[in-house]
Specification:
This protein is α/β, with parallel strands linked by helices and 337 residues long. It has helices at residues 11-20, 34-37, 52-59, 72-78, 80-83, 96-100, 103-112, 150-162, 217-223, 244-261, 305-309, 315-328, and strands spanning 2-6, 24-30, 45-49, 66-68, 89-90, 120-121, 131-135, 145-147, 172-176, 181-190, 195-208, 229-236, 268-276, 282-288. The chain has a 5-stranded parallel β-sheet. A 5-stranded antiparallel β-sheet has the order 12-11-10-13-14. Helix 2 links the parallel strand 2 (24-30) and strand 3 (45-49). Helix 1 packs across helix 12 (315-328). It starts with a strand and ends in a 9-residue tail after the last helix. 5-amino-1-(5-phospho-beta-D-ribosyl)imidazole-4-carboxamide binds at residues 9, 73, 234. ATP binds at residue 206.
């Protein structure tokens, strides 16, 4: 059996973990990145493409004996229509992609999971506090902007339309900007073991919002630079242990709700992207229904994955372990779609 993935995002740890579990591996990579992936001995096959349509053709070469591991670049790069043409089995629940690509449906899922979320403003006219305006899809924060009143929201949306990042106001979500510490809680839901595992925590390193912190106060006051939120890296974090029961409760609620609304529900990795406030509330402002790039921090295992497995367990390897267990029990159909 071959485990493959698209050459981007978290491909290296996915394929490294698959090789650790004894699988053949394949990366479907843009020809411009082909030489890069040749550096790694755990990658057995490089299926290169020169167009996005050709990428789908290359993925489908694995349809008889392979499983594709999705990550944030899959739908964002290929687009929903191309992903729908993928015939190779995909690890996890494909139907989650549609919910993850729509910010409003995302928040509906979180709300129905009894998870604390920021206030959402359905109308620009209702904005009465600092907000963050977000675009749909896994864009890594590109195009997001802050606004402190409805006039700034209107101006920012108009700029997005003029730059052709969106076509209309309906493509954004206006969300209260919660003050606190960002913590992105990573989980893995195992169908084989019927449990939700806390995997790790990361903080996104964003430009230029993080870079602005290094500027002198007087310069910021005089120039009033606009913050942006493009993710360029990740920083590891460990939470106070008293936060973990709430985080795990949220995760279990999320698993239960996805089973009801998007059957068979979440399968494998997911992330609850959160702010922890000064009164220790965990406020979840978004979720990712697949592996997140923050898990790249933990190729040798996270502080939490060691507690479950007592061995180096990256998220890539955890995915491969789940596939391996399912295959040995002749229940592969429960973890792929």
């Amino acid at each position: 059996m071959i485990i493959g993935t698209l050459g981007s995002h978290s491909a290296l740890q996915i394929l490294h973990g698959a090789k650790k579990e004894g699988f053949q591996t394949a990366v479907v990579a843009d020809k411009k990145r082909e030489d890069f992936y040749r550096n790694f001995s755990f990658i057995d096959n490089i299926l290169s493409y020169d167009s996005l349509d050709n990428a789908v053709i290359q993925i489908n070469k694995m349809k008889d004996n392979g499983i594709l591991i999705p990550h944030g670049s899959l739908v964002e790069y290929l687009g929903k229509e191309r992903v729908d043409k993928i015939q190779t089995k995909i690890f996890g629940n494909r139907k989650i992609f549609e919910w993850e690509a729509d910010q409003k449906k995302k928040m509906e899922l979180l709300r129905k999971s009894h998870i604390k979320i920021p206030e959402i403003f359905e109308r620009v006219e209702d904005v009465d506090r600092l907000v963050i305006v977000k675009l749909n899809g896994a864009k890594g924060g590109k195009g997001y902007f802050l606004a402190k009143n409805k006039s700034e929201v209107k101006e920012g949306i108009s700029n997005l339309i003029n730059s052709k990042m969106i076509k209309s106001e309906e493509e954004v979500i206006i969300q209260e900007f919660v003050i606190g510490v960002p913590m992105y809680f990573q989980f893995f839901y195992s169908y084989m073991l019927n449990r939700t595992e806390i995997f790790g925590i990361d903080i996104r390193y964003e430009t230029n919002i993080d870079g602005l912190r290094r500027l002198p106060y007087n310069y910021i006051k005089e120039t009033n630079p606009s913050p942006t939120f493009v993710v360029v890296g990740n920083i590891p974090a460990v939470a106070r242990e008293s936060l973990l029961p709430v985080a795990l409760e949220y995760a279990n609620n999320f698993v239960k709700t996805t089973k009801e609304l998007v059957p068979p529900g979440i399968i494998g990795p997911f992330c609850l992207e959160s702010i922890v406030t000064d009164n220790m509330d965990i406020v979840v402002f978004e979720f990712s229904g697949r592996i997140v790039a923050g898990t790249n921090l933990y190729v040798n295992g996270s502080p939490y994955s060691w507690l479950y497995w007592d061995e180096p367990m990256s998220m890539g390897r955890r995915i491969a372990r789940e596939i391996k267990i399912a295959n040995e029990k002749d229940k592969l159909n429960l973890v792929v779609s």
